[in-house]
Design brief:
The structure is a single chain. The protein is an alpha/beta fold. Helices cover 41% and strands 20% of the residues. The protein folds into two domains: 144 residues, HUPs (Rossmann fold, 3-Layer(aba) Sandwich); 126 residues, Rossmann fold (3-Layer(aba) Sandwich). The protein has a ten-stranded mixed sheet with strand order 3-2-1-4-5-10-9-6-7-8, with helices on both faces. The radius of gyration is 20 Å and the shape is elongated. The two termini are 19 Å apart.
């Protein structure tokens, strides 16, 4: 994860995201690319526009670059002489948010996209509101969503929540996660939400086999497994966020698993009321 990408809309919450990401980048010795996507009228609901004058495009790009320069200066003022200071670059492009994130991620070898949760509805209105589901579905890099309430403190424990239905890809994601955790000297808690009856023997065998594979391939001692007993998945994740002393919640986005519950209907609002830690989302495989 040598370069982090920060998509930004220059809001106050987005500034906090950049500050959080800068602190993380400094700790893991990653460089930073700040990106502003100038949204085309076709992406803005009920815009009523049928064309985008070139003069307006140039003005928006100029304003965007000006705001990026201010944000860059804000981070440069945080530099220290006794620690690693990330190289900071900026880019501003017109187009869809997801296309720009994917294109920039590919061309600049981005390891992690750091984005924000806006407003009071948390997970329900992640970066740029209506673009949330598209970003989660189509961005092909790990995404770290940072809520406004996230404290900028050392990361000591990362929880990786899984349903163990795709162990090969889970292992691939955990190996990637270790590249983030190792320079932080952070623990990785692999967890699964189970009903109050607990694991059956077959499932426990699957978990044991998975942890053996992790141990064989990860070469990272600070990783372990714990089950969380809860009647509902969301309640289990909620409990883990509140009482598990974790600093980042990580999970894989794939169809028909508990991750989708977070972004559908009442589950979103219930989770959003409590989560105050960053959420790391690995893309679907």
């Amino acid at each position: 994860m040598k370069t982090f990408l920060f998509p930004t809309d220059f809001s106050a919450d987005a500034k906090h995201v950049v500050a959080y990401g800068y602190s993380l980048a400094r700790q893991v010795k990653a460089n930073i690319l700040i990106c502003n996507a100038i949204i085309e009228p076709a992406e803005i609901p009920q815009t009523g526009m049928v064309s985008w004058p070139m003069e307006e495009s140039d003005l928006l790009l100029k304003d965007s670059q000006h705001e990026l320069d201010i944000l860059k200066k804000y981070l440069e003022d945080k530099e220290e002489t006794i620690s690693f200071n990330p190289a900071i670059n900026c880019i501003s492009e017109a187009g869809s948010v997801t296309d720009i994130i994917n294109n920039v991620s590919h061309s600049h070898n981005i390891g992690l996209v750091v984005a924000g949760m806006h407003g009071n509805s948390g997970l329900g209105t992640l970066l740029l509101g209506n673009h949330t589901s598209k970003i989660i579905d189509f961005v092909k890099r790990p995404l770290l969503f940072v809520p406004p309430s996230a404290d900028i403190t050392p990361i000591k424990k990362i929880a990786f929540a899984t349903d163990f239905k795709n162990p090969d890809y889970d292992l691939e994601c955990i190996l990637t996660l270790i590249t983030l955790a190792r320079p932080l000297n952070a623990e990785i808690l692999i967890t699964h939400i189970v009903d109050e009856g607990g694991h059956d023997a077959e499932f426990q065998h699957r978990v044991d086999k998975f942890m053996v594979n992790v141990s064989d391939k990860a070469d990272y001692p600070k990783i372990y497994y714990r089950a969380v007993n809860a009647k509902h998945t969301i309640k289990g994740l909620d409990w883990l966020c509140d009482h598990g002393t974790i600093d980042i919640m990580a999970m894989v986005h794939r169809s028909h698993n508990f991750f989708n519950e977070l972004f559908n209907g009442s589950h979103t609002q219930k989770m959003a009321k409590h989560i105050a830690i960053p959420l790391l989302v690995f893309p679907s495989n």
